[in-house]
Design a protein that fits this description.
The chain has three helices and 26 strands. By secondary structure, it is mostly beta strands. It folds into two domains: about 220 residues, no CATH class; about 140 residues, Immunoglobulin-like, CATH 2.60.40.2550.
């Protein structure tokens, strides 16, 4: 059951701060590429005779096996955005087996090659390309556009939630109604899509795109086998968010930020958030170690254990403190509004002169993120020109 929020609370599952949301994008972007090793296939999930095998990726934009999205509003990602895994190469739970094609306890380093990721508003078209290795040249592929519930099934399957009712076919929306769109395509001699694919008229919500090798129609075995080449996720938000703020300010001055949601209902109940962060500090190193158990799995971002952030409720103050801890004192500042308070004042007295990114977001109970915006600004030393 979803938790309701008032003026002093935030729905932690839906109303994430912009910075936290951007880091979490990595979890969807890297569904099929959590680790990087030699060979075509890096990981597999097996359950009840069904199997899903995941292709390896590398840091290359041209042939690394990534899906790239265009259209919408490009939001800056942390640079670098890296993933490091150290732990077991095989986990079994509730009849599901996850295997990694790596030696157990061998550290794996990975860096996401793109610097931005788009968000879309209701009515915008979503265009995708896929740039794979030449090993997949001339192959026929299936492209799945799955809705939010199917993306959730992907995550549940991969993290072994222990729900025995989940089958691997749910990753691709099989056996459900109106949960996915399946398109057939062909890769060229470089292993890339012959032409971009565009999706139109998507309703607000969370979506995932999965590219697989085409099914073998002559296969007599009735068990499911999917070979996933790549996957990514994206959000379609409800409204266009407009932000007004001074792009050039002096050291020590407060930053007033005013936000407005285009075509939002007058009686809507919205919570607004603003995050200002120094460009040099905007980076994310995600470390995961695991022995195959929940208690033995540790996740940290920039050497901060996520369990130490102290978020035990939906309290706005706790969430603010947690994000401030992640970005570090002196690297930025954050503010979250009371209900329908669309003007915020960010205190910058402890921020050094330099270039900063300003992220703003609007959240609505029951819907989550309904608007997002980004801008750049400069803090100049007192007595100097910002130009």
């Amino acid at each position: 059951m979803k938790k309701k929020i008032g003026t002093n609370g935030i729905d932690m599952r839906k109303c994430k701060l912009t910075f936290a949301a951007l880091i979490c994008i990595f979890a969807l972007i890297s569904v099929s590429a959590a680790v990087s090793e030699k060979g075509l296939w890096i990981a597999s999930i097996e359950k009840n005779g069904d199997s899903v095998v995941f292709a390896d990726h590398d840091d290359s934009q041209d042939e690394g096996g990534w899906i790239q999205l265009s259209g919408g509003q490009e939001i800056q990602l942390p640079e670098p955005l890296s993933f490091i895994y150290n732990g077991t190469n095989c986990v079994e739970k509730a009849g599901t087996v996850v295997k990694l094609n790596k030696d157990s306890n061998t550290e794996v380093n990975y860096t996401y090659p793109y610097s931005t990721h788009p968000f879309y508003t209701d009515g915008q078209k979503v265009t995708m390309t896929y740039n794979g290795p030449s090993a997949f040249k001339n192959q026929k592929v299936n492209v799945y556009l799955v809705n939010g519930s199917s993306v959730s099934s992907v995550k549940k399957a991969i993290v072994l939630a222990g729900n025995e009712s989940i089958n691997l076919g749910q990753i691709f929306g099989e056996g459900t109604d109106n949960s996915y769109i399946k398109l057939c395509a062909t890769l060229d001699k470089k292993g890339d899509l012959l032409k971009p694919i565009t999706f139109y008229s998507l309703k607000p919500g969370s979506y995932g795109i999965i590219v697989t090798l085409a099914d073998d129609e002559d296969k007599e075995n009735t068990s499911m086998e999917k070979k996933v080449l790549s996957a990514t996720g994206f959000e379609v938000v409800n409204y266009e968010l407009k932000t007004k703020a001074d792009n050039n300010m002096k050291e020590g001055d407060n930053l007033d930020v005013t936000m407005s949601l285009k075509k939002a209902p007058a009686d809507g109940k919205f919570t607004y958030g603003a995050l200002l962060i120094n460009e040099e500090a905007y980076k994310a190193e995600i470390n995961v170690s695991s022995n195959g158990t929940i208690d033995g799995t540790n996740v940290s971002v920039n050497d901060i254990d996520l369990r130490d952030l102290g978020i035990s409720s939906t309290n706005k103050s706790e969430l603010t403190n947690a994000v401030q801890t992640l970005i570090g004192e002196g690297n930025g500042t954050i503010s979250i509004s009371d209900e329908n308070q669309n003007t915020l004042s960010l205190t910058t007295f402890d921020l050094q002169p330099g270039n900063y990114l300003l992220f703003t977001g609007a959240y609505e109970p029951g819907k989550g993120l309904v608007g997002i915006d980004q801008d750049k600004l400069t803090i100049s030393t007192k007595g100097t020109s910002p130009i």
